[in-house]
Amino acid sequence: MPPNLFTIDADRPFLATLARGLVDRTAEDRLALTRITILLPTRRAVRSLREAFLRLTGEGDDPGAPLLLPRMRAVGDLD
User: Fold this and answer.
1) What pTM was estimated for this model as a whole?
2) Rounded mean pLDDT of 28-39?
């Protein structure tokens, strides 16, 4: 399967929009989110995206619902 590329408008909050889009895209199959790899520029961006996913779990019909996160890697990370 070829990689999927999407764009986010410049006027939207990037990480919150990315997290919301991924959760909405994988709403049918919650395990699908775990098969996604997201490459981010820094470890700080990885932490911020995790926090964006956490904020999403506090919204909606089932606040605090557990969520399995995708793999998130910092491109510049040497580990």
Assistant:
1) 0.79
2) 89
